[in-house]
Every structure is written in structure tokens, then in C-alpha cells.
Amino acid sequence: MFSQATRKIAPYALTFTAALYLYLQADSFAYFARRGILGPDFWPKILLVLTMAACFYEIIKRIFSKKYILQNQTAPLHPEAVLNKCKMHTGILLWVLAITVAYACLLTTLGFPLCTFLYFILFMIATRYRNAWAILANSLIGTLILAVIFMKAVHVSLPLGREPYSEITFFILGVLGVR
Questions:
Q1: What is the value of pTM for the model shown?
Q2: Which residues fall within 8 angstroms of residue 52, CB to CB, at 6 or more apart?
Q3: Cβ atoms 95, 89 nearer than 8 A
Q4: Which end of the chain, N or C, is less surrounded by CB atoms within 10 Å?
């Protein structure tokens, strides 16, 4: 019914359309505006603009890229190869889903910094990244960046954790200068 090129573009076009609709809906948030304070519509709009930009880029890339044009002209993969690839990705998906559920459940107990650090480590291991030093460095840097963004820039109150884990959170916040 639809050409292969249309099927490759459709998810991005639908996501772009949904993001545009939600962007327009973000103007209807009811709140009391205070001077110098960002409203509740600011961050959703930023994320939606970035989503639309990424979708637009992918649509243009798929329309004009010779790589994607040539892929549309090649023969399809054998069903057995596709099935084996799907089985491998299903295992990774289930592992990542379990890690994400555990993160959500343990966040209030362990606190944001410790739980996020462990989540990043387990996520990278689950997705078959094997360089231990890179995993530790990325997890530490990613956790610190998110803590600074959420606690200093956006002023979001994140879970501190229960004793004794809250001590780790207070130490990290003290190092970052967050009060």
C-alpha cells in the first residue's frame, strides 16, 4: 500500500505532528506567572522543539540521502536473520526494562545521585558496553551533570534517599554547592 520510503519516514512525520500538537497545547497551561521565573510551559516546549528538530532532520536525511535510497532498492533480509536479530534485541530490551523499573522503585530509598549512578552503570552493561573505566566515568559525569541541571538550574526537588544513603546525597550536593 505504501512505498518503503514512506514507511521509513512515517514514524518521524507522526512524531513531529504529535510534538507540534503538544507544543501548541503547552500554551494553555493555567498558572500564575511570576516575573523572572520560568513557567511550567518552558521545559516541555524546549523538549518538543528538540523533538521536532530531530524528526525534521531524520525526514530530510531519509528523503535526500543516497544511502537510504540505495537501501530501498536492495533485496529484503532473510526471515531467519531478522528473527535471530529480534531475539537478541528482545533480551536486551527486557533487561533494560527491568533495570528501569528497579530504578523507579529504588529512587526514594537510594536517593537520586546513587540510584542514577547505578542505573547508568547497569544500563551500559546491559547494552553490551564493556570498557569498565568508560562506564564508570560516563556514569559519574552523567549523574553529576543531571544533578546540577535538575537541582541548580531547574530547581527540581529530587529524592534524597533514606539513611544511610541520604548521607551520600548530602555529600554530593555539598560538593556541587547545592543547598
A1: 0.57
A2: 16, 19, 20, 23
A3: no
A4: N
